[in-house]
């Protein structure tokens, strides 16, 4: 019995280490917006541990070695690269290459990435309420076609008592603003407050790219938005 358990553990370690085909973390997608300079955008993903990993954007190449053990809040086999500040809005392709165990160099690419301002829109049902359900919805949704430099992403309702590495549930992948990406089903996408705010900022800043991440959970108590340790400081177990 003891032997069998060790064998299972050994096999699963082997599988993790040989199946490490590189990929971006799941919310890094085509059409996304990364934060422009003077901030430095982080790009990260998964693959094999301890592999030389290179990232190309424009005429710049960055290199790192994927983690051989978990560190800095990232698990084993992840790689992460902090870009120099990018002021040019793009669009860019971002290519990441890593050798596979059989020696083949595998390259993965994010297409049509813009650099602009990224906003997180979060809250309860008043933030979750969608464009389809507001005053003047038909015209406002049709109007979204005029803003291809605004990109939207809707995250699912996925509470967790411990921090998670990637998104647990993506409702709407990074999408170019259009009548279909803004006028999705009621209470699904896209958040009306988030869109109208983002559109106003985009116009006020002379058309700068804007990334909008909507992630709300209607009816939630404020306590549920607190990290567990902060919550316990306010409400110590009696
Ligand atoms: C290495 O593995 C990849 C992914 O399975 C495959 O596409 C590629 O053809 C392999 N290369 C060699 C030289 O076997
Ligand atoms: C309805 O939306 C359109 C497009 O954004 C806008 O031009 C128009 O002023 C809005 N109408 C009203 C009454 O708010």
UniProtKB/TrEMBL annotation:
<keyword id="KW-0378">Hydrolase</keyword>
<dbReference type="InterPro" id="IPR005181">
    <property type="entry name" value="SASA"/>
</dbReference>
<dbReference type="InterPro" id="IPR039329">
    <property type="entry name" value="SIAE"/>
</dbReference>
<dbReference type="GO" id="GO:0005975">
    <property type="term" value="P:carbohydrate metabolic process"/>
</dbReference>
<keyword id="KW-0732">Signal</keyword>
<feature type="signal peptide">
    <location>
        <begin position="1"/>
        <end position="20"/>
    </location>
</feature>
<protein>
    <recommendedName>
        <fullName>Sialate O-acetylesterase domain-containing protein</fullName>
    </recommendedName>
</protein>
<dbReference type="Pfam" id="PF03629">
    <property type="entry name" value="SASA"/>
</dbReference>
<dbReference type="GO" id="GO:0001681">
    <property type="term" value="F:sialate O-acetylesterase activity"/>
</dbReference>
<feature type="domain" description="Sialate O-acetylesterase">
    <location>
        <begin position="117"/>
        <end position="229"/>
    </location>
</feature>
<dbReference type="InterPro" id="IPR036514">
    <property type="entry name" value="SGNH_hydro_sf"/>
</dbReference>
């Amino acid at each position: 019995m003891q032997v069998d358990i060790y064998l299972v553990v050994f096999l699963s370690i082997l599988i993790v280490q040989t199946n490490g085909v590189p990929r971006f973390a799941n919310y890094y997608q085509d059409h996304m917006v990364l934060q422009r300079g003077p901030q430095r955008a982080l790009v990260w993903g998964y693959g094999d541990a301890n592999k030389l990993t290179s990232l190309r954007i424009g005429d710049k190449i960055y290199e790192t070695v994927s983690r051989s053990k978990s560190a800095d809040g990232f698990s084993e086999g992840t790689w992460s690269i902090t870009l120099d500040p990018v002021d040019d809005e793009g669009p860019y392709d971002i290519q990441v290459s890593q050798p596979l165990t059989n020696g083949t160099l595998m390259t993965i690419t994010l297409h049509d990435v813009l650099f602009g301002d990224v906003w997180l829109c979060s809250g309860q049902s008043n933030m979750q309420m969608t464009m389809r359900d507001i005053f003047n919805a038909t015209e406002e949704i049709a109007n979204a076609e005029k803003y291809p430099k605004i990109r939207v992403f809707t995250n699912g309702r996925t509470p967790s008592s411990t921090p998670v590495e990637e998104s647990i549930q993506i409702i709407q992948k990074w999408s170019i603003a259009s009548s279909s990406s803004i006028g999705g089903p009621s209470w699904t996408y896209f958040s009306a407050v988030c869109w109208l705010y983002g559109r106003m900022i985009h116009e006020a800043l002379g058309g700068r790219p804007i990334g909008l991440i909507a992630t709300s959970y209607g009816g939630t108590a404020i306590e549920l938005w607190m990290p567990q340790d902060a919550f316990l400081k306010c409400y110590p177990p009696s």
